[in-house]
Amino acid sequence: MIIILRPSATEENIRHITEKIAEWGLKSEVSRGEQRTVIGIIGPEDRVREKPLAAFPGVESVTPVLKPYKLVSYEFRGTPSKVSVPVKNGKVEFGGKPIIVISGPCSVESREQIIQIAKQVKKAGAHMLRGGAFKPRTSPYTFQGLGEEGLKLLAEAREATGLPVITEVMDTKDLSVIEKYADMLQVGARNMQNFALLKEVGRSRLPVMLKRGMSATIKDLLLSAEYILNEGNFNVILCERGIRTFETYTRNTLDLNAIPVLKRETHLPVVVDPTHGIGLKDHIPVMALAAVAAGADAIMVETHHLPENALSDGEQALLPEEFELLMKRMRAVAEAVGRSI
């Protein structure tokens, strides 16, 4: 249920409404836009269906959310959300005019490797460092990551460059240790519908990037995000990273359609991962440019200084100089569509 307030509504009106909602055993989320303030009611709608919400001072209208995903729907906020990651002397903010760029290797392999790559992507203009410490792999015989040691190395790279860190959480038992080192959690495609994990990250203090599952619909993705928001964590960004189709030439099919659809359906920021979306190194830059043009709020690409020696996904990692060139090209496209990088 969404309560839209009049422009003349006062802070006292807002406080009165939210207190009443709490008395009914429900939660409220207040979103202040430039023209209107919206109060979303979180919880079973049958508890408020008979309440005289429209009679409260300052209320302009009351609207039920008919979609199966309530909290992530655009109507719930009525304005795009911004998700912030604190950094020294500022923040990295997803959902604003600037497009955020995340880069780094698929896996953290050594101190020398992650710090060197972090410095290189920082120099090129990246805003955030990615790197896997716990790696979900198709084969149980391939490199699975360094675990906590990898997290410590990511923290060292952050200290050396100032770049905040995003890394994947695969298991609820690993969350507490990852929270000690990371600045943002990534829920990977294989775990998009791991509802126990979604609930746990929903109770985390860290922002969450939720990746679309390989065979998931947009509706599936939004309902998975609903699990996280329903636990109280509204700092969520959605990631389009390609889906499986009948096409076998590329690793996946990057669904650029999802960008404008998600921007209409949800208030959450949208990030695109062209690296996994196409999986062919030569075509990753073109798909990154297309994602910027289509309205993505962030781009995430893999970079490795020695891809031939990479322990995972080296064949789809850009060299640092290739990433630097891509940054220049993305800045030009962003400017053409009224954004910046």
Question: How would you describe this protein?
Answer:
It is a single chain. The chain is built from 11 helices and 14 strands. It is of the alpha/beta class. It has 2 domains: 2-64, Alpha-Beta Plaits (2-Layer Sandwich); 83-336, Aldolase class I (TIM Barrel). Strand 10, helix 6 (195-202) and strand 11 (208-211) form a beta-alpha-beta unit. The chain is elongated.
Low-confidence stretches: none
Q: Terminal Cα separation, in Å?
A: 36 Å
Strand content: 15-25%
- Helix content range: 25-40%
Total number of distinct structural domains? 2
- CATH superfamily annotation of the largest domain: Aldolase class I
Strands of the widest sheet, in order across it, are 7-8-9-10-11-12-13-14
Oligomer: single chain
Output the number of helix runs: 11
CATH architectural name of the largest domain:
Alpha-Beta Barrel
| Largest β sheet strand count, sense and barrel closure | 8 strands, parallel, barrel
H-E order: EHEEEHEEEHEHEHEHEHEHEHHEH
Q: What is the number of E strands?
A: 14
Rough outline: elongated
The gyration radius over C-alpha positions equals 21 Å
Question: What's the rounded overall pLDDT mean?
Answer: 93
Structural class category: alpha/beta
CATH class membership of the largest domain: Alpha Beta
What would the CATH topology of the largest domain be?
TIM Barrel
